[in-house]
Amino acid sequence: MKNFTLSALSLALSAVGASVFAQAPAPVDPSAFVNQFESTFGKFEGYRRSGAKGICAMGEFVGTADARALSTASAFSGNAVPVIVRFSVGGANPKAPDNAKSQRNLALQFNLPGGEQWLMGNISAPVFGAATPQQFLALLASRQPDPATKAPDPAKVKAFNDANLEVLLQGKHFASQPVPASFGSVNYWGVHAFAFVNAKGEKQFGKWIFEPVGGLQGLNDEEAKAKGPSFLFDDLRQRVKEGKVAFNFNLELAQAGDKIDNATVPLPEGRKKVNLGTLKVTSVSEDAAGACLTINFNPLVLPKGVEPSSDPMIAARAAPYAVSLGRRLSEGAKQQ
Ligand code: HEM
Q: 49 in ligand 1 pocket by Cβ < 6 Å?
């Protein structure tokens, strides 16, 4: 009887274990994530493991009445809020070329009244390259250079892609777009859904985009070649001096039934878009230094009135960002 009870209990427990596992796969160890970034993209000491080539700037944000109707966040008060801005080129290489059809990033720290902060890192694609942290880690591993050829193993890459078609969507977006003419002339998407909570406690989920007030501007292949690998920082300084770098912070509103837990799936076309306010970049660091050095743009640092959705990638970013920050600072931080 005792044996029966024990084995029944262990069966029941393993069933519970299996179902818990099916719903929530084991979390990825944050150091393993950063190790995999280094193995796949190379280790550049002192630099961010992602978005290594960047520049710090300052700006201000003014929110709209439409934003205040959606969220109590103090960022939307209508008063100018100071924002620390970091623009970067995607990847771990601090010498990544500016004239390639690759990712650009817009990372922000809103410094709100009372010491509250809102941190975010946005990318120049409407989707991310993986839906879950487990899939992202496996994607990076599939691209790890083979020690013999020093290049990713095409068979491994193909096998992974064939089994995970959504990881190709982001690359398809970049291939379909021109090389951005400027950090200030490309759209930046948040890719995750967040909830906006108003004074009545009503929650509206949405995905945001920062769209340049002056419109999009790209380079054709000839222009990109002529610009060379390093023009974005000077271009930014010039445009900011002319007062030309500003973005509309827009929110696409999710409707019931829309997928809001997956960064590889944009909201359906034509969802209502609300302008939450305008971010204006007012100055750029004179050299590569600036206030950005110790900020890691952890997307879980949110103001009261904005909450994360159930997208598992949001929380999965927090700890690896902290690991990367710890490594780069202790290695002798480089100012990019
Ligand atoms: C679990 C998934 C992810 C991991 C492990 C990861 C890892 C990292 C790491 C290690 C950094 C450097 C942090 C630092 O040293 O301060 C970083 C920066 C960044 N990540 Fe991610 N990332 C993930 C998902 C995403 C997603 C979904 C986005 C899409 C919006 C994104 C956008 C960015 C941006 C924009 C930066 C640069 C921020 C800056 O200028 O410092 N990441 N990421």
A: yes
